[in-house]
Amino acid sequence: MATSSVSKGCFVFKPDFKKRKISVPIEEYFNKGKNESEDSKLRFETYQLIWQQMKYETEQLQEELNKNLFDSLIKFLQKCHSGFQNNSRDWGYQIKLREIPTAALILGVNVTDHDLTFRSLTETLQNNVTPYIVSLQARDCPDMKHFLQKMFSQLVDCCVDVESKEEEKDVQKKTHCSMDSLSSWYINVTQKTDPGKPGKKRNSSQCQPPPVVLILKDLESFTTKALQDFIIISSQHLHEFPLILIFGIATSPVIIHRLLPHAVSSLLCIEIFQSLSCKQHLTTVLDKLLLTTQFPFKLSEKVLQILTNIFLCYDFSIQNFIKGLQLSLLEHFYSQPLSVLCCNLSEAKRRITFLSDNQCENIRRLPSFRRYVEKQAAEKQVALLTNEKFLKEETQSLLENLHVYHTNYFLVLRCLHQFTSSLPKYPLGRQIRELYCTCLEKNVWDSEEYVSALQLLRMLAKDELMTILQKCFDILKSSSEKQLGGTAKRIEELLAQFQSPDAEVKEEEDASGSQSKGLQKTDLYHLQKSLLEMRELRRSGKKQTKFEILREKVVSFIDNLVRGVLDLGHAEKTDRAD
What we know:
about 575 residues
């Protein structure tokens, strides 16, 4: 009766396939039900083009950042592999033979980015070291039994021969997984493999069987007992099963000694490899994607601040930051009709000539364009508001000015960062992204931090000033703009004046004065005291040395350059298509 009552309460409903939602292509959302299908399609195609370019740049950047780390790992693995083949009977070598070569890979707390790093690492090792790569996570290895099963399963998948792979899977189902069975399988596979057959590329000699590399992606999450048992048993089979371990560590190498007692950790020959820090990676990504004129799309101060705050205060994930950047790009092209002009300059000028009357009205409605019209003469105002042809020509000119503005903006921003990034307490930030956010928020010279930075620049020594000026000259000498080309020549003149014999003598005179105190490492109190003394000396009318005058010229030069180029009002001459 109980079973009958339960069965009466069970009902089965067949799904109605007709009511399933049909997935709508993303480009359809750009139409929004309006009669702008051509512009909507063009906006979506422009979005796809820019995003594919950004994605390619980030992938190339990731490969460049991982190259040094992966090269070091490959050298370590190849050195360990050559050690396995040594047949020395020396007692010290026999003791070392029981130590498992282990690479402790410190990746940082950005766990969401680790999968991408391990995928690239696996592919690199398969192409250069060995085809036998196993990647395990703690959730798949609660005990020794599952540990060996997962390892055996992935090793079988590494077989190049499909027929042998199927045979080994059948053998795996019938036999109990153990280190003895793994060793027997490895010996059989390496003996069957013909060295003459084309397979994976590897730098080891063809007569030597390749090692087995085991990657533990999240070492902190592995159970202590399973890890200890595996290491102890594996160390006893190294002569027949050449194993190399790679520990993926998010925190610190100390975790190895917390998980493993000395008796077990002494069985590992550990070498530590450090990846690039998350903050440095973020700075590099911003430098490649945003602080450049290669991409016309730019983020506002609020959006950039939100994305960086999520990164620094939540997950430290570069992948999530890039996804946020992609979402911002998609939202911009979806919501802004004039985003059709967010492309390279030559293409944008061509598209302007084909703008419809509605798009011309959209330009006239822009707040930045209205402010620009109000500053023009009466006749020009009428032409801009009534003549479509004149409006398009003026818009093309304004876009050219905006392109020049962005080019000069990022060059001067980098120069200012060279001056301020090494100052005590970093008044304008240590990273260029911090300075960039400040410049987007307001005119940087209106901040107290900027005034403080100029005061500290007036305390720099000759060698420091010359080093900074040389870096700025290297930044600006590649510029083709007339304004910044003249700036590079001015910097070259200042460097020549510093290198003159008179400047050296006067610098020595200045070194005996009170300003030399500011060059020493000191606390905030003594730094403020030195600045007050400098101000009092200037008020008292004390005659400045030639070095002081030259140093003041440099400070005034960079101040005028910043005020002339990093002015937010210049960007309001037209609506920023970015």
